[in-house]
Amino acid sequence: MIGHRYFACEPWTLREIELELEVLAQSESLFALSNGHIGLRGNLDEGEPAALPGTYLNAFYEVRPLPYAEVAYGQPEDGQAIVNVTNGKVMRLLVDDEPFDIRYGKLRRHERVLDFRSGLLTRTVDWVSPAGQAIALRSTRLVSFTQRSVAALLYEVEPVEAPARLVVQSELLANEPLPEVERDPRVPAAVRRPLESEFAHRHDTRIVLVHRTRQSGLRMAAAIDHVIEGPENTAFQSEAEGEMGRLTVAADVGAGERLRIAKFLAYGWSSQRTMASLRDQVVGALAQAKHTGWEALVAEQREYLDRFWASADVELEGDAELQQAVRFGLFHTLQAGARAEQRAIGAKGLTGSGYDGHTFWDTEGFVLIPLTATAPHAAADALRWRHATLDLARDRARQLGLRGAAFPWRTIRGQECSGYWPAGTAAYHVSGDIALAVIRYRDASGDEAFMREVGLELLVETARLWRSLGHHDPQGRFRIDGVTGPDEYSAIADNNIYTNLVAQRNMRAAADEAERHPKVAAELGVDPEETAAWRDAAAAIAFPFDEALGVHQQSEGFTQHERWDFGSYGPERYPLMLHAHYFDLYRKQVVKQADLVLALYAFGDAFTAEEKARDFDYYEELTVRDSSLSACTQAVIAAEVGHLELAYDYFAEAALMDLEDRQHNTRNGLHIASLAGAWLAAVAGFGGMRDHAGELSFAPRLPGALPRLAFRLIYRGRCLAVEVVRDAARYRLLRGEPLEIAHHGESITVTTGSATSRPIPPAPRRSPPSQPPGRAPARRVTEAPAAGDT
Fold first, then answer.
1. Domain locations in the chain as residue ranges
2. 478 and which of 139, 306, 466, 540 could share a cystine (Cβ 3.0–4.6 Å)?
3. Active-site residue, selected from the candidate residues 158, 488, 513, 640
4. 457 counts as catalytic
């Protein structure tokens, strides 16, 4: 784990106070910058040492074959892997002919700071070369939220005690060497030298490189330009060739003087546009960035984030570490989607190449929930990307003998890239998760144009999938057999409750929206007979329940399976998927991640309070949390049923997933869904927020360690502020028309005039549930409550 040995605990920043090469890979992920279009890992400016070089463009990928031991019908033939594109971050420094390298000489100070309010990554270095020359170095990096194609950095070097000859080499590098691949399914498959050069040009301080992928045929352009400030004798020269462009700046700099270089980067890519068109695009973007200037880019970035935090911040009192973590998580969630603009949001965002850069159901199931409430434009754009891939999803459904649209389990462009069908193709709930995200966005935004243009068609095509996938049995129940739900340790199951409920909600919503938009529905071929069939199937959905145990079955017959022998597996044998065969996992009662418990949250209005309590306790004993998606969901339901301290522990696990490297794979990129889940644990867990049937409600309760929770969110064009203390909750509109909400079942109307306060009823008293041996969450131990930050 990383822990606070290396990082200071501050409310608005992640400050690295000690550079340790043993956690360099993890820190590269933590310090990644992105706007959803461009992603820059937090590699050191000088490029070496580096654990995983990383510069990414959203949806820019290379094709690679998927190997199979046996050929079978319907298996995807090709996979897709995100490409480490041309790196423009590199700034090499020579001090009196000595390369600046933190592994040599004396590193007297090294500090990096990621500021969540400014969106800047700042590095401060005090270094003495092996020859005894001392320099002070400061670099500041940003990926612009306001100019989508642009990143920039400011590089400043100052001799401290004596004059120095300084040389700075600002570079563009393609086809950087990548580390060897590990034998872990979560680790990326390295694509070696994927870029072929098409164009290289230099002019004055500007360099442009254009490349094309060898297999996927995607074309990208990268360009850099500079503003140089230094002593009068400062000189520069530039060069460019196929895989490298370099601007070399040389100056004799006196003690106390400074060499200052502002570097502007621009990126663009396309599957169709010509080399000349892309070249001109990045040159134009670069010209605009340089015209704006470094200081104005910094100001724009701060203004953008000021607007975001004004309607999105979450405040915690009593746990400074979680205060930092929840803001860290929300900042990276925003970075993943803010300017993705109808492209995917990957499981790692653009922070690393883990999972080959693929998008899963994580996006709709987790990430879009806080984005809908804090940056709704980003949620809408992510769903518009799904809509843009509808033809591919229809093709996949036809290949599988189904109607409608079968969206892929893992993908970059929209094609199915999972070669393991029990966990991939059979996980049809991904299509329902997309529909659920459409419903959530519709309810939260009231965006009728979106529903006409995008939402209705997504609902219709996914409803058609369910109607063709399921069938009515002799008892009249609508069954969906042979599918994989969210729990990947229980594949090819009948009537998975989560899947059935998402199908039910999907079909009802499709029927309702078709009736609300009859003209669009008619254009999609929807008629009253089809909507009636959806409603009939939804009304008859199978809902497995074990009468003897008094709990719902995750899937039909699940509670009759043999229980997993947890006693035979010590801590060193987790995750189980790396130490046990799926054949054994699939036929035992063991749960990788929240599944039935996720249904308790997503479809809470389908269960009674007592059913939720019994179901949670039962599945708590079986859930090993080998997935980063689990802890946040368990936190939400633990809080709802009254296990507030357990919810607090799970909240910490989700929020600190990457800051403490809980899954031991942060080196390959951040767990964006878990970071989004930290918001869920706070707002849906302790804030008790639900949006069932389009009604916004709250049932807040706090654990003992948190005396105060406050958060803001956007709902139907309003900005709502919620403050929760020990015995009361206060609701106030910061802007917008009056809004009707519910507090612990009581309907209230909130306005911009004054806060509405309501008492909080005590939580029900329940015995704490148990977890599998050795899989209980770490107990959260905190210091005395700290004063709130400003």
1. 37-300
2. 540
3. 488
4. no
